[in-house]
Amino acid sequence: MNREKATFAAGCFWGVEAAFRATPGVIDAVSGYSGGHAEHPTYEQVCAGQTGHAESVKITFDPDKISYEALVRRFLAIHDPTQVNRQGPDVGEQYRSVIFYHSPEQREIAERVAKEFAPQYYPKTVATSIEPAGIFWRAEDYHQRYAEKP
Fold this sequence. Notes:
Helix 3 packs across helix 4. The chain is built from 4 helices and 8 strands; from the N terminus they run E-H-E-H-E-H-E-E-E-H-E-E. 25% of the residues lie in helices and 26% in strands.
């Protein structure tokens, strides 16, 4: 089985993780923190704005079953990519919208698809940033598969 990685941030990671877990072709989805400057950030540090991280989800997928482009389209459809540093009631830089690319090909696809989506939001603009994937810090265990918990 082929495996590739994709990392997205779209507000609170609980809903993002659940949405991608339910996507055929996705092998795994893990909640965590990306795009910041601190090592081993905690949820409390991230929420306090001390680390620069975004709540993110790292996805492992089978490219023979789902393309990276389809994942980017899903990502843009499950949240409001025009909001800056927020999603719904969640406000702060940790809730920003980001596509963290893992290769030049992913960057190219992300940029193209984001441009395709832009007209449907006019007069608003797509605020999603497209950044190189750095270190992904896995969130605490109690955040994993949160939507599945009773």
